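# step 3/5: fold
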Amino acid sequence: MAIQDRREREKEQRRQDIFKAAERLFLSRGYDDVSMNDIASEVELSKATLYLYFANKEELFFAIVRHGNMILNSMIKKAVKNAETGIDKVLAFRIAYHTFNRDYSDYIRIYNYFQSGRFDIIDKNDVAEIKASINFKPGGTSGSMYHLDDFAMKNASEYLKDILKMRSERFSIMCNSVQSGIDDGSIRPDVDPAESAILLSSISKSMSDIPPDHERILESKGINHDKFIMDVEEMIRHMIKNKDK
């Protein structure tokens, strides 16, 4: 039994070594400029050995994208849990996202590449988000907006499924935060949870890619990136706040 345990530990350590080597290369050079030969050389293993642990380069990349999503979701859940009112939960979610964007910019970059259309994954995110507005039920914290079978995902890798599930989880957390605010009176009752979650997600994406000329305009007014983020969050608070309370 001890020998079997040792072999399992060695196998897991080798998997981690491969993962870390691939992560260093993908984060520094991007997906297309890294080959399995590069990864094998980095970790000092044969390419054939890599295929014992990961089916191909794409699966390795998805494993790294998943890792970034795990960090992001953990930060968001912790922030939302510590917030009291619904409107505070919404803003806590968004600040956690901005913090991740600042501290883990490489993961944001590869996640954006993951979603760029380069890979044969779900390219029907808009359809899924529309379905979410139909299927969303207030009150939970871990509902799913995706029905993976609808997109023939049965043969997809576990890494890809996990990435999409975590994206779904973030969407549901935001929906439930908005619903919580409606219930506790901190958010206007006419705000639709799914619609606002999609809007706020779109705003976050655009804020992570501000055009250089717009950045120069902000800088000329003495507004750095952090201040801009907080100003936008204050605008959002006023936009959804229940002014009757």
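# step 4/5: annotate
Confidence is low (pLDDT under 50) at residues 129-152.
# step 5/5: archive (pending)
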